[in-house]
């Protein structure tokens, strides 16, 4: 095995461990979601909604780049962990960003050919929400755990959130798209109707 | 929500369930892999090896289509199940193919715009190994569970396979690429060295 293939091999065995990183929402009624399966569904949802997104924004959107951002966006959590979106403050956010940036440089930069540079650039684009594609992926990334908490019956008791709190978390991100906002409204309505989310005035 | 968005919503909640389909290989030392996380890693591996694959075969390979095949190739298992690659015979294969085809028609065909037709065509391309892209994805799909059985320490005891049996399962598929064959050889060697795979003559 030549040196370049050894580096690719090591990256493959590194990324394999994204299956071990647990998220805070469920994948099924009886277990937490892994970041790997979260990333898969993000890519599927972007693919499914791509034509709608283009229709809404009135210009082409690079689905290939969107899907790659979905696949890659949380790979650094293999070493940096997955903090809950419900428990972040300013200093925690900055420390998380620094830790993830360090993992990205260490794990991505040395990959052969143009691969390392591509991964670093895509991660940066996603983190900054620098393009319409990145902002839509960030919207789907926010919608997805709400969908799973609803579908699996997990609800929001573990984070003590009611519908108003969920709106505050979701709307700034899903608001990038009328389609994502409509899908969030549907999830919210279903969750309230099933008694998974408190919507008391 | 308009009728088209309702169809897309229902497809999203349908695909969400790929997290529930368990494979026969482990994801971590303590649990089986879901088909969703398997599909994610397949896409990552194809992306990682894409430049090598192009170098080997001497012509461009459509990575976007490869990644879409990875994401989609097992979605039908949500309803058709995931039979082990180790326990198949001719009649079982044919019945599996029919069941999966039926799920694909029922779940994909009615999707709005060009989406339904795209999903059906990509699934067909993958199943038939009709293109270099499809044959490479099929190679990665075969390599991946061997890698996970090795990395997680699961080994092959549950399927009663030794190294010769593993070669018979792997080589026809990974043989499509020198890179995939080299990666398989590395997995095999590591597994034998760790006592996970018997290589007695």
TrEMBL record, chains A, B:
Domain HD/PDEase: from-to ranges: 31-155
What InterPro entries does this protein map onto? HD/PDEase_dom, HD_domain, YfbR/HDDC2
Record's keyword terms, sorted: Hydrolase, Metal-binding
Q: Name one GO cellular component term.
A: cytoplasm
Gene3D superfamilies on file? Hypothetical protein af1432 (1.10.3210.10)
**Which reaction(s) does the protein catalyse, per the Swiss-Prot or TrEMBL entry?**
a 2'-deoxyribonucleoside 5'-phosphate + H2O = a 2'-deoxyribonucleoside + phosphate
Q: Which spans of this chain does the record mark as coiled coil?
A: none
The top EC class, named as a word, is: hydrolase
Essential cofactor(s): Co(2+); Mn(2+)
Q: Which SUPFAM superfamilies match?
A: HD-domain/PDEase-like
Claim: Repeat is one of the keywords in the record: no
Q: What is its EC number?
A: 3.1.3.89
Q: Which GO terms describe its molecular function?
A: 5'-deoxynucleotidase activity; metal ion binding
UniProt cross-references to PANTHER family, sorted A to Z = 5'-DEOXYNUCLEOTIDASE HDDC2 (PTHR11845:SF13)
Subunit relationships: Homodimer.
**Full protein name:** 5'-deoxynucleotidase
Which species does the entry assign this protein to? Streptomyces caatingaensis
Q: What is the lineage of its organism?
A: Bacteria, Bacillati, Actinomycetota, Actinomycetes, Kitasatosporales
